[in-house]
Structures are given as structure tokens and as C-alpha cells.
Write a structure and sequence with these properties.
Strand content: 5-15%
Order of helices and strands: EHEHEEHEHEEEEHHHHHHH
Number of helices: 11
Enzyme class: transferase
CATH architecture of one domain: 3-Layer(aba) Sandwich
Distance between the termini: 53 Å
Structural class: alpha/beta
Family: Belongs to the class I-like SAM-binding methyltransferase superfamily. C5-methyltransferase family.
CATH topology of one domain: Rossmann fold
Strand order of the largest sheet: 3-2-1-4-5-7-6
EC number: 2.1.1.37
Helix content: 25-40%
Protein name: Cytosine-specific methyltransferase
Keywords: Methyltransferase, Restriction system, S-adenosyl-L-methionine, Transferase
Length: 395
């Protein structure tokens, strides 16, 4: 029998996608965002509840019968992007997660947030976490900053993780990839181009976002991403104004809005991630959605599509996002990369069940097909609602 899990602050289902790749059993997912819950329900399980976790009575679920509880409470109050407020009410949802842990008493819990959780506001929230966990002596715990590119994700994405376990001292998952590859005894980190080069070219203002594959997969990562899918969805693009296109065209690979700041009245300062054109031959910048934009495509004069962002996040093509274009960007970029989640699942299966699954899923096609079967579904169905609404455009 495999391990069971519950996913709080689940969003579109990054944790659940990765756990199901590893064969774990989904008990439930809970989030406040209706669009994200539609996506999770479509791809993961019907057992997805759209609820306000600030007032949710977790005792209505079950008590003591789940192996793993994971959660990614809102990170905006700790992020380097945008305005931070120590009194942001969303920050207190961190403690709601640990309230749930104390009631459900799982064998293992995992908490995820941005690296700023440890340092923001002079580290007060991290100190409070340490104090809270001192009051939970049943759990041995550990914390670390992980870079997603070390786990086969084609993206430089650092995140804070804390993990607690009842019967063992938890450790960071074993890295499978690195910048130096074989020199460090790993595979070489997956580049942006290795993740998206097989996707069709699209124009500006592509609203439908549904395509057939028009070329073969060009590497093992792409073959893996296509498993269970014979069509591409969510490959939409914004209808950029000529002014925005002019800015995009002026940015060379590896640069950002610093090349044109002060040339436009509306762009007087450089902000994090603004008009940043991705580099092809290394892992992508962190997948993000802010101020109406994400990274610029390395070759085309447009921002990356939601499907390209999903590839960068390690969502398979069979995982179909159920929101508008803007909602899909947010769902994808806020998610825990599924391959990072899978690495945690692999580690826990080994410790708790003595089961060893392949470290890298595409190294064993047969295993991938078996373990990923239940998330590589519905790829031939047409979305009831096309992903085309444009709610906010960059300036």
C-alpha cells in the first residue's frame, strides 16, 4: 500500500501532480481560489474543496489517518516582488497550516514558501516557526532552501521548505541534476530550450491555444512531458500593443527593461523581472506572473505562453489549466514544481515504505507510464471555456 496525502493551500495542484507521479494516494485538496480549484479537480481528483482555510474546520476531514500533509500558504507577504506588509493578514495563514498539522497528526508534514520567509521582517516569522515547533515535540524537523533546477525542473527557482516527521530526522531530497552534471555525479540541469523548443510557434493574441505537435520531441524531457498527450493546450498569448511590442523587441537575450528605462514616460525605474528575455541554454528564470507579464520568449517577440511556463514548471502537457489566460499564468507560476514534489515523495516512499522509484522519471519510460497514468489524462478533450480573456496588459 502506498502513502496517502492531503494538500492545503493547494492552488492548481503542483504538490498533488508530483505526488501522483510517484504513485501516492490523494485524499483531498483545499484552496480558496475557485479557478485553481477547477484546475485541480479536472486534473487530480474530484476531492478538491474550494473553502476559506482561515475559517475551515479541519476536523471534518479525518483524524490520524493520513500519512503526509503538505501546504504552501500565501507567499506575497514574504516575497521580494512587490510591497510587503508585516501585518498582511495572509501571513497568519502560515499558523493555520500548523493548526491543521496538530489536529490531523500526520506521519510527515511539508511546508513551502519563498526564501524570504526566513529573513523578512528581521526573521520574526521564522523565529515564531521555531517556537511553534518546539511545542510540537512529536516531530523531528528540518528546513532548507532548494533550487528546483537540481531536481530536473528547467528553472532557477529557490524556495524555502520545512519538513517534520514523527519517526525519523527528515533530510533534503537527493538532487538529480546540477549545473556541472557528471562532475557532481548528477545529470546536467535542463535548459529552457530543452523544455520548450518542440512547441509550435504562435502569434500575438493567440486566443484558442490548442495545437497539434508539429515536430518530434527533441530530448528526453520533451518526450516525458508529452506522455499521455497528443495535443497541446493553454498555448495562448497576449495581444500586445505596438508600444509594448517595441519594448519587447528592444530587449536582447539575458537582458531586461534596463535597456529602455527612462525612454518611456511610464517606465522610470527597473523592477524585478520586468521585460526580462529568457536565456536559451540554461535553466529558465523563475516562472512568475507580475505586472501583467512573465519572461520574454528567447526567440519570439512575445511573453512566454502559459503552456511554456507549465513546461518550465515541469507540468506535463496532459495537465490542462482551466482558467482564463491570466488566471492560468497565476496558477502555473504560483505552484510547487511537480518534479520537486515528486522528489519529496520519492524520499518518503524510500524511508516509510522501502520503495525506491526512479530518481529521474524519464530514465524509465515504463515506470513513468505506470506511475503517471492517472495524471496523464483528458488530453483529447476540448475545454468548455477557451482560455482567452485578457484582464491586464503590461505598460
Amino acid at each position: 500500500m502506498t502513502l496517502t496525502y492531503i494538500d492545503f493551500f493547494s492552488g492548481a495542484g503542483g504538490w498533488s501532480c508530483g505526488f501522483k507521479m510517484a504513485g501516492l494516494k490523494h485524499i483531498g485538496a483545499y484552496d480558496f481560489n475557485e479557478s485553481a480549484c477547477r484546475t485541480a479537480k479536472y486534473n487530480i481528483s474530484e476531492n478538491v474543496k474550494c473553502v476559506d482555510l482561515n475559517t475551515f474546520d479541519v476536523r471534518t476531514i479525518l483524524d490520524g489517518n493520513v500519512d503526509i500533509v503538505v501546504g504552501s500558504p500565501p507567499c506575497q507577504g514574504f516575497s521580494n516582488e512587490g510591497y510587503k506588509n508585516e501585518k498582511d493578514p495572509r501571513n497568519s495563514l502560515v499558523w493555520k497550516f500548523f493548526d491543521f498539522i496538530e489536529i490531523l497528526t500526520p506521519k510527515v508534514w511539508i511546508f513551502e514558501n519563498v526564501p524570504g520567509f526566513k529573513t523578512s521582517y528581521k526573521g520574526i516569522y521564522f523565529k515564531q516557526l521555531q517556537q511553534r515547533l518546539e511545542l510540537m515535540p512529536a516531530y523531528q524537523w528540518n528546513y532548507f532552501i532548494l533550487n528546483s533546477s537540481d531536481y530536473g525542473v528547467p528553472q532557477k527557482r529557490s524556495r524555502f521548505f520545512a519538513i517534520g516527521a514523527k519517526k525519523f530526522q527528515p533530510q533534503r531530497p537527493e538532487a538529480t541534476h546540477s549545473k556541472l552534471g557528471e562532475v557532481l555525479g548528477t545529470d546536467k540541469a535542463i535548459s529552457l530550450w530543452e523544455s520548450i523548443s518542440d512547441l509550435p510557434k504562435i502569434g500575438i493574441g493567440e486566443k484558442k491555444g490548442i495545437f497539434e505537435y508539429d515536430k518530434p520531441a527533441e530530448c528526453e524531457y520533451q518526450k516525458w512531458a508529452r506522455l499521455g498527450s497528443n495535443i497541446i493546450k493553454n498555448h495562448t498569448s497576449q495581444n500586445h500593443s505596438q508600444r509594448v511590442l517595441e519594448k519587447i523587441k528592444s530587449v536582447p537575450m539575458g537582458s531586461g527593461m534596463e535597456v529602455f528605462v527612462n525612454k518611456y514616460q511610464e517606465n522610470k525605474v527597473v523592477y524585478c523581472g520586468g521585460y526580462r528575455r529568457a536565456v536559451k541554454d540554461e535553466p529558465s528564470y523563475t516562472a512568475y506572473w507580475t505586472r501583467g507579464m512573465t519572461s520574454i520568449h528567447p526567440e519570439e517577440h512575445r511573453f512566454l505562453s502559459p503552456r511554456e511556463c507549465a513546461r518550465i514548471q515541469s507540468f506535463p502537457d496532459s495537465f490542462i489549466f482551466q482558467g482564463t489566460t491570466i488566471e492560468n499564468y497565476t496558477q502555473i507560476c504560483n505552484a510547487v514544481p511537480p518534479l520537486v514534489a515528486r522528489s519529496f515523495a520519492r524520499s518518503l516512499l524510500k524511508v516509510l515504505k522501502g520503495i525506491d522509484i526512479p530518481a529521474i522519471p524519464w530514465n524509465s519510460t515504463k515506470t513513468v507510464e505506470n506511475n503517471d497514468k492517472n495524471i496523464l489524462l483528458k488530453s483529447n478533450e476540448v475545454l468548455e471555456k477557451p482560455n482567452y480573456l485578457q484582464l491586464k496588459l503590461p505598460v
